[in-house]
């Protein structure tokens, strides 16, 4: 994808602009999804390692970083979603499954946004956090590509953020769904950009 400087601060990647304060939004990298023994999980070691690299890049530049995790406090929350996908019921408050994978532990100034549905924006304060941190674009990674990553990318666009998705930082137990979702995101909602290209863009900020 072509990259070009549009002014002293903004950088174009594909058809969208990575502004001067992109935020890294890490979707549902909780133990319920990153551990193979979980009914929702799988082996996403490579994705964890790539997210660790992105964390290093964003932290070195003091750029915003936010995490999401699915948490249920009572039986009424997202009851239709949970009826459709009963395995979600393991994601109870105070269970180990809702904790962020310790390999990518958030720092105290990196908020963890609790959510009940697929999108990181739906009925959460993610948008408010992004505004407070003066984020002007978002880089989305996490689990799963065909579910919560895609939903967050779509809602990011609908909140008027340029959205960038790094495929090496996204995982899905269904590879066909993973690839199809990346195709749709890149066609309609954002830019799918490689880890190398994204890090190159960050280096020019």
From TrEMBL:
Keyword entries, A-Z: Hydrolase
Hydrolase is among the record's keywords:
yes
What InterPro entries does this protein map onto? Isochorismatase-like_dom, Isochorismatase-like_hydrls, Isochorismatase-like_sf
Q: What name appears for this protein in its UniProt entry?
A: Isochorismatase
**A Gene Ontology molecular-function term?**
isochorismatase activity
Q: What is its EC number?
A: 3.3.2.1
All residue ranges annotated as the Isochorismatase-like domain in the record: 23-197
| PANTHER family from the UniProt entry | ISOCHORISMATASE HYDROLASE, PEROXYUREIDOACRYLATE/UREIDOACRYLATE AMIDOHYDROLASE-RELATED
The keyword Hydrolase is annotated on this UniProt entry: yes
Matching entries from SUPFAM superfamilies are given as: Isochorismatase-like hydrolases
Pfam families annotated for this entry? Isochorismatase
């Amino acid at each position: 994808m072509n990259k070009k400087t549009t002014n002293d601060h903004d950088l174009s990647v594909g058809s969208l602009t990575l502004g001067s304060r992109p935020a890294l939004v890490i979707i549902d990298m909780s133990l319920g999804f990153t551990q193979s023994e979980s009914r929702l999980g799988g082996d996403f070691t490579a994705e964890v390692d790539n997210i660790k690299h992105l964390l290093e890049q964003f932290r070195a530049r003091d750029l915003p970083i936010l995490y999401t995790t699915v948490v249920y406090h009572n039986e009424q929350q997202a009851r239709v979603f949970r009826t459709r996908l009963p395995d979600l019921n393991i994601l109870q408050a105070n269970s180990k499954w809702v904790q962020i994978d310790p390999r990518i532990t958030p720092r105290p100034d990196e908020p963890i946004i609790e959510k009940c549905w697929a999108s990181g924006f739906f009925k959460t304060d993610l948008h408010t956090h992004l505004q407070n941190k003066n984020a002007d674009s978002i880089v989305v990674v996490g689990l799963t590509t065909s579910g919560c990553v895609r939903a967050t990318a779509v809602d990011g666009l609908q909140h008027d953020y340029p959205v960038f998705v790094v495929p090496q930082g996204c995982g899905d137990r269904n590879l066909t769904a993973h690839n199809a979702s990346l195709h749709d995101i890149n066609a309609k909602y954002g830019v799918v950009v490689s880890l190398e290209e994204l890090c190159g863009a960050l280096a020019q900020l």
